[in-house]
Amino acid sequence: MNCRKCERVVNEDFNFCPYCQEPVQQRDSGYNTINAGNNNINIGLGNNSKQEFYIDNFNVAPNISNELVVEYENCLDRKVVGGIRGYKLKFEISGVLSVISAVITIFTYFVKKSDFSFFLLMVSLGCGVYALESINKHKKLKNNGVYKGNSQLVLYKDDNGDVYTIRKYGVCPICGGRVNIYNDERFKKKLGRCVNNRDHIYSYDHTINKGFPLEIVEFVSNK
Question: Residue 23 gets which letter from DSSP?
């Protein structure tokens, strides 16, 4: 069948045109009715209730072609300022600050008996940890070209010494926009959403790194 808006050929099983998002099948605009039986009192809605209710539901269009599948991959995200040399510089600066903070901490604790000794100790430890992390990233990037955190790719170094952050995302098969993975609070799971059109929502399966179009349906009863 043809879409009534863009006139392109569309699978009749689709609810929306994959090209222009025009509804393919008209939904019944009548009232949503729940038949609970005679003299039945529902604890949630009450007897003869006209309460408004809201339901979220996932519907995956049947017989989806491979053209509407999102493939999530680890890709270059953004360029890190300073490149690989920047991590060595961060190590040197934070290392010096760590030593200075440690000296000041010892002085204030034994000589001045200051109340800020604990705060300065935390600053010293923080600078030390940051220095070790920076030199570790510099070493891994220099030797391996990549840096992993919790077994996940985090940083990548190219041949020019430029460093990029790594992020897993896909390409929207409808509009070509970037599909970022995010945690959906309502459904307590990870989904993919297009940056060009927030209505282009996809599932996310980390086992196969693929996603399929999702339709979020909203039902509201008539008051």
Answer: B
Burial code (b: 16+ CB inside 10 Å, e: under 16) for 94-128 equals bbebbeebbebbeebeeeeeeeebeebbebbeebb
Is the overall model pTM greater than 0.70, yes or no? Answer: no
Confirm if 178 and 171 have CB atoms less than 8 A apart: yes
Structure tokens at 172: 């929207």
Structural tokens at position 70 = 């999102």
38-85 pLDDT tens trace: 444 444 444 444 444 333 444 444 444 456 899 999 988 899 998 889
Q: Phi and psi dihedrals of 100, rounded to 5?
A: -60, -45
- Give SS3 for 2: strand
- Tokens representing residue 66 in the block: 């491979």
Give the C-alpha distances (Å, rounded to integers) separating 190 from 4, 81, 133, 183, 184: 34, 30, 29, 4, 6
Q: Which two tokens stand for residue 43?
A: 């604890």
Contacts of 5 by beta carbon, 8 Å cutoff, 6+ apart:
17, 20, 22
Give me the residues paired with residue 155 across strands: 147, 165
**Residue type (1 letter), 85:** R
Antiparallel, parallel or unpaired: β 178-184 and 210-211: unpaired
